[in-house]
Design a protein that fits this description.
Layout: E1 5-7, E2 12-16, E3 31-33, E4 50-51, E5 61-62, E6 67-70, E7 72-73, E8 85-87, E9 96-98, E10 102-107, H1 112-121, H2 125-133, E11 141-142, H3 145-148, E12 152-154, H4 159-198, H5 201-207, H6 216-219, E13 226-227, E14 234-235, E15 239-242, E16 247-250, E17 253-254, E18 264-266, E19 282-283, E20 291-294, E21 299-302, E22 311-313, E23 318-320, E24 324-329, H7 335-342, H8 345-352, H9 365-368, E25 372-375, H10 378-416
Parallel strand pairs: 3-9, 18-23
Antiparallel strand pairs: 1-12, 2-10, 3-4, 5-9, 6-8, 6-10, 7-11, 13-14, 15-25, 16-24, 17-20, 18-19, 20-23, 21-22, 21-24
Helix pairs in contact: 1-4, 4-10
Length: 422
């Protein structure tokens, strides 16, 4: 027997957020959660969270586990952003305030499973299309809370919908685990690089006669003293190098008529600022301009506004925006060291100071030769690669595991409203 359909408003209300004042942004206070914290189609972008020190009302507060969604879309209406929903991670460290561009879902039902089902239903194409159909505006598209609440949902869940909701919850939990592991691995790479090659911790320890906790075969590769150089004291036996000593820019152009359905596309929007991990990419459908070719392992460096720190090795083959430099080490044994140099905060700060252009500042490969650093001998760079490359490989495997979970989630979301498993 068919289940009756009722408006979403039977189970919740959609409450618009705060019309904030710009002067209070980034002041001490709760997290400010607006459109920027929402991924197109749904999902939380923690790197876009800011703070707000101005006045607000209690009803505009949200907590870990709460759901909010986008009421405004400033991109093309064909983009699946309007209505995109977020569930704030349970480990999010603070309360938040939602902005007037988004709305909090306030539940009327105490049924946790129904809440979870409805959240996932808000992640479906059917819900996003409903929000687009009821939107108004030409350049900026908005949907009202009342129209969001019109969306029809089942009055009760069938067995398949229960199974799918639980499976979607499990996928979300697995994604969180993988993401946490990637963050730990990424931090480990940064710590090792900074300790060995920026702070010279091993050399300082040996100079002071202090035992450093590394295998003896690795310790032997570090000197126990420093020598003077044009950039200051560097470990004895090391030289002063530049990025051009280790790598090159790849300049292979792909024209739109050569793109295939299998080609992946990476634009600046796909990076997570300050992260070594590239977990998002698109396709080449609708792209009409030339792009750069890249292959798995190539280092992608955002040259537009480089201070945004968009640098990561690619986990796939594809093409990218020409506002991205495609970099390769001259020798693959230097891949991990080369990546660590060009993704370091010190390097990003340096090239950001050499940008050309005012409104849209860009750096270029030629600028990289001006960055000088202490270059260790090849055998120590090889040891660093042997230590760090397995961590980078693990990150790459994790990215593809997350993509498989994403694929499974999309299949389930496509079946969720009908309740049919196949």
């Amino acid at each position: 027997m068919a289940v009756a359909m009722v408006p979403l408003g039977e189970f919740c209300t959609i409450n618009k957020g705060l019309s904030y004042k710009g002067e209070y942004i980034d002041e001490k206070g709760p997290a400010l959660l607006g459109m920027g914290t929402i991924t197109e189609g749904g999902g939380f972008r923690s790197e876009k969270v800011r703070t707000y020190g101005g006045p607000y009302k209690t009803r505009q507060l949200v907590n870990p586990g709460d759901v909010y969604l986008a009421l405004t879309n400033m991109a093309e209406i064909t983009r699946k952003f309007l209505g995109s929903a977020v569930k704030i991670p349970y480990d999010f460290p603070t309360q938040g305030i939602i902005t007037h561009h988004v709305a909090k879902v306030t539940w009327k039902t105490d049924d946790i499973l129904m809440r979870d089902y409805l959240y996932w239903l808000m992640r479906t194409d059917g819900f996003l299309q409903h929000c687009a159909d009821f939107s108004t505006g030409t350049t900026v598209h908005t949907v009202s809370s009342v129209d969001v609440e019109r969306f029809e949902v089942p009055e009760s869940l069938n067995e398949n919908q229960i199974i799918m909701t639980r499976e979607l919850n499990l996928i979300a939990a697995q994604e969180r685990v993988l993401n946490d592991e990637r963050l730990e691995d990424e931090e480990m790479v940064r710590i090792i690089f900074c300790s060995w090659f920026m702070n010279f911790d091993v050399v300082k320890a040996k100079e002071s006669g202090i035992h450093f906790q590394l295998p003896e075969s690795t310790l032997r590769l570090f000197p126990n003293s420093f020598q003077d150089s044009e950039i200051g004291p560097i470990p004895t036996g090391w030289s002063v190098g530049t990025v051009h000593d280790l790598g090159r820019q790849r300049r292979e152009i792909r024209k739109p008529d050569s793109f295939t359905d299998e080609d992946h596309y990476v634009g600046l929007k796909h990076f997570t600022r300050g992260s070594l991990v590239l977990t998002d990419w698109g396709d080449t459908i609708g792209i009409v301009s030339n792009k750069f070719q890249f292959t798995t392992g190539d280092i992608l460096f955002g040259k537009l506004r480089p201070y945004l720190h968009k640098v990561a090795p690619s986990p796939v083959d594809g093409v990218c925006s020409t506002d991205i430099l495609v970099l390769q080490p001259t020798q693959m044994i230097d891949h991990a060291f080369f990546l660590s140099i060009v993704s370091s905060t010190h390097f990003i700060d340096f090239v950001s100071g050499l940008c050309e252009g005012v409104g849209l500042p860009r750096t270029k490969w030629e600028h990289f030769k001006f960055y000088e650093f202490a270059l260790p001998p090849p055998e120590l760079r090889a040891r660093y690669s042997a230590t760090v490359q397995p961590i980078l490989d693990r990150i790459n495997i994790s990215i593809h595991q997350s993509k498989e979970l994403e694929r499974r989630r999309q299949i389930l979301l496509g079946r969720l409203q009908t309740g049919m498993l196949d």
